[in-house]
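C-alpha cells for Putative TIM-barrel fold metal-dependent hydrolase. Go.
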Amino acid sequence: MPPSEVVDAHAHAWPRWPYQPPVPDDATRGSVEHLLFEMDQNGVGRALVVAAGIDRNTDNNAYVAAAVRRFPDRLVHAADVDCRWTPDYHRPGAADRLREAVSRYGVRVVTHYLAKENDGWLVGDEGRAFFRTAASLGLVLSLAAAPPWHEDLRVVARENPALPIVVHHLGNVLNWPGGADEGLRLVLPGRDLPNLFVKVSGWYYASSEPWEYPHAARLDVARAFHDEWGPHRLVWASDHPVHRRALTYRQTLEIVRRHCTFIDPADLPGVLGGNLAALLPARSSVA
C-alpha cells in the first residue's frame, strides 16, 4: 500500500438514517455509496467503517459486512460488539460474543461504545476477559469512551500492550460537561502507552456554532494530543456522514491537513493515513 494513501479512521454507513430530524433521503443519506462518493471526490483510499446498530439499524453489522464484500479494497469493517445501545451491553459473556462476532463477520477490527457513566466494567473480570480475548485474536479496538473511563482504560492498555486501542473523536473531551481542559486532564496521561491512539475528528461536538470552520479555537485540543502522545498516535477521521450537520467531508480533511500547523509536514502522511494503515489488515489487492 502506498505510504501516502489517505485513510479515513472513522466513518459510518447505514441503510436508514438514524438521527433526528428526519431527512427526505432516508434510505440513501447514510448509504455506503455516499461514503464512497465522498472518498473518491477527496482522494481517500480506504475507510474504517464503524458499525453502530443505533435506532432503526440493528442490522448494521450485516449491512457493513455486505458493503465490505462488495468493496474489499476500499472499506474495513469495525464490528459493533456489545455497544451501549445493545441488550448485551456489559452483560456476562462478552468475550464469547466477541469471538462469535469475529468468526461471523471475519473482522480484525471491533468497536465498543461505552455509556457516559463509568460502571467499572473495563477493569472488572468481564471487561478484562474481553480485552485479553481481543489481544489474543490480534484485533484492533475502536473505542468510544468519555473522559471518566480513561483512568481505567490506561490500565487496560498496560495489561494488553499488543492490543491497539483507537479512541474516538479527540477522546470526547470537546463535549465533556466539565469543559475541554478538564476532559484533557482526565484523558491525556498516557505518554508511556504506545498502543493508545486517538482519532482527530468531531471538531463540532457541543459547539454553539458547529458550522464554524476551521474551528480554530478547538485546534489546541488536537495540539495537546500531538504534544503529549506524539504525531504517530494521531489518525484523521471524517465522522461521515455525521459531519454533514456541520462540515463538508473535504473540510474534515483540510482542518488537519491545512490548519493543524503544529503537525510537521513529514508527519502529516502518517496522521492522514499511514498511522492507521499500519494497524489495519492488508488490502486484498492493489486498487
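The beta strands are 6-11, 44-50, 75-80, 109-113, 140-144, 165-167, 196-200, 234-236.
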